[in-house]
């Protein structure tokens, strides 16, 4: 059992004065945590191999041997690397009944067969081990820059011990999230080792598509012109080619954000129930849609920047001047083409509207904005306006090449221009969406999603783990 003062709800600063927290280890993390605890009104006692060395320790803290320090407090933070945990075995009598907070991290995943917290628990079986604080850095604790890592993830087998650590976290201005029993410690220890897990797939897709379209257009536009007409237009690589690749990839990636929900609806229609798991690849795809969309937005932004410089390009100014001079020489005036004026203005207008909505989608995906929206508002923006964005951007691309679709010369080597390829996925998504909103199909999908259609339960178990995907618009 824990003393009342520790297990209770967060204490007011004055009351914390009597509450002592012990930290083993006077390294970077120990000192930073000690400083924060002192600022929050706790008494801090360090346990060190060298209690005489007070250098760098925060003012107001005490330092003792490990055994002496352990006696002063109920909660002890072990701010020592896992490799050195053996010294704790000699302290087992002093640590009996104490709460040990394991904050350690590893250098790589799966470094040890057992999580650090479970290892600590096996070394000191008489203590209650709580895993936590490992996702907060010493630097963030000391500088107070905790916005990004305000959350402390905790796991442990003793609810009271966990509560004591939750209270300390709250007193330091952190939020605590319960991640379950000590068996989950391995997962919590892996979190600081992750490198943008949800961004990996979208970035691979973007890189793959950019590489594919770059080489496709390089061969088709630049190398082909050189091989057939001997024309060197390699300078186009820098702006013209890039300004084709970015919008093409952006449009395809925007469509890829909406394709999985179409596939999911088709799968549910096919199975006639939502009580069936989606394939793993579809689940993974659904989970990284936000990141797919943000990468697509970044590429659309590049397309806007590349388009804005067109009027100041040497090549463009040269072409305009040459055209004007040719008309003067020939004493002719090119007639004003009303259709062309309509087409280009519509093309720009749709592009700007599409980009405006694109930015809105990006902004509403930020946690600080999406947190103030309810589910229906979020769905309205991300799903309904998302499809409108896709429609505008597709129409923008279509208008760009509208009279070239039937022109045989557009198909060099019988390969279509890039923008035509970029229309395939968006058109599939938009047409499927249209079919899915046909009333009879829509009603069936709604019936399925509301769980009215259940499969026959064969052999007593259902193949499904649960409900509709939480992110499915
Ligand atoms: N630094 C950070 O930002 C973060 C660190 N962590 C974790 O916190 C723990 C400590 O990290 P950090 O403070 O950076 O490390 P340091 O190397 O700075 O400090 C570790 C401390 O452990 C003690 N120690 C070292 N060797 C032994 C030993 N053989 N026996 C007993 N005690 C020993 C020492 O204290 P003394 O000399 O007083 O005995 C030393 O100062 C690690 O497990 C790390 O993974 C977790 C999240 C962030
Ligand atoms: Cu465009």
UniProtKB/TrEMBL annotation:
Residues 248-382 form the Ferric oxidoreductase domain. InterPro entries: Fe3_Rdtase_TM_dom, NAD(P)-bd_dom_sf, P5C_Rdtase_cat_N, STEAP_metalloreductase. Keywords: Copper, Endosome, FAD, Flavoprotein, Ion transport, Iron, Iron transport, Membrane, Metal-binding, Oxidoreductase, Transmembrane, Transmembrane helix, Transport. It is a multi-pass membrane protein. Coiled coil: none annotated. It is found in: Endosome membrane. It holds the Pfam family Ferric_reduct. The chain crosses the membrane at residues 203-226, 246-271, 292-316, 347-373, 423-441. This is Metalloreductase STEAP4 isoform X2.
């Amino acid at each position: 059992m824990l003393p009342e003062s520790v297990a209770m709800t967060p204490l007011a600063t004055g009351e914390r004065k009597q509450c002592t927290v012990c930290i083993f280890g006077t390294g970077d993390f120990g000192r930073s945590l000690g400083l924060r605890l002192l600022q929050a009104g706790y008494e801090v006692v360090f346990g060190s191999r060298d209690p005489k060395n007070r250098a760098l320790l925060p003012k107001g803290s005490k330092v003792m041997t490990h055994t002496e320090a352990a006696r002063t407090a109920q909660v002890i933070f072990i701010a020592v690397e896992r490799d050195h945990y053996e010294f704790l075995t000699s302290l087992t009598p002093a640590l009996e009944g104490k709460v040990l907070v394991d904050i350690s991290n590893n250098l790589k995943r799966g470094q040890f067969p057992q999580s650090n917290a479970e290892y600590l628990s096996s070394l000191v079986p008489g203590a209650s081990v709580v895993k936590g604080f490992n996702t907060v850095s010493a630097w963030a604790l000391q500088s107070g820059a905790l916005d990004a890592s305000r959350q402390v993830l905790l796991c442990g087998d003793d609810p009271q011990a966990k509560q004591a650590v939750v209270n300390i976290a709250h007193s330091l201005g952190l939020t605590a999230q319960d991640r379950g029993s000590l068996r989950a410690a391995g997962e919590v220890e892996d979190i600081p080792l992750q490198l943008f897990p949800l961004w990996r797939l979208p970035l691979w897709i973007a890189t793959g598509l950019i590489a594919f379209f770059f080489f496709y257009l390089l061969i088709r536009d630049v190398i082909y012109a050189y091989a057939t007409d001997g024309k060197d237009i390699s300078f186009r690589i820098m702006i013209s080619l890039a300004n084709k690749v970015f919008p093409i990839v952006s449009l395809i990636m925007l469509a890829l954000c909406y394709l999985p929900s179409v596939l999911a609806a088709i799968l549910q229609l096919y199975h006639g129930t939502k009580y069936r798991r989606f394939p793993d690849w579809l689940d993974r795809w659904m989970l990284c849609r936000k990141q797919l969309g943000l990468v697509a937005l970044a590429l659309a932004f590049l397309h806007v920047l590349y388009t804005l410089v067109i009027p100041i390009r040497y090549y463009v100014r040269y072409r305009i001047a040459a055209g004007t001079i040719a008309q003067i020489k020939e004493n002719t005036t090119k007639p004003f083409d009303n259709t062309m004026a309509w087409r280009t203005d519509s093309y720009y207008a749709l592009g700007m509207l599409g980009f405006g909505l694109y930015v809105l989608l990006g902004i509403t995906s930020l946690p600080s904005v999406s947190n103030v929206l309810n589910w229906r508002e979020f769905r309205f923006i991300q799903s309904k306006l998302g499809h409108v964005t896709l429609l505008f951007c597709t129409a923008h691309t279509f208008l760009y090449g509208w009279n070239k679709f039937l022109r045989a010369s557009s198909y060099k080597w019988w390969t279509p221009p890039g923008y035509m390829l970029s229309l395939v996925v968006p058109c599939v998504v938009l047409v499927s969406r249209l079919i899915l909103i046909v009333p009879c199909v829509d009603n069936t999908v709604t019936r399925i999603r509301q769980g009215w259609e259940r499969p026959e339960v064969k052999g007593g178990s259902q193949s499904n783990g649960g409900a509709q995907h939480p992110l499915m618009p």
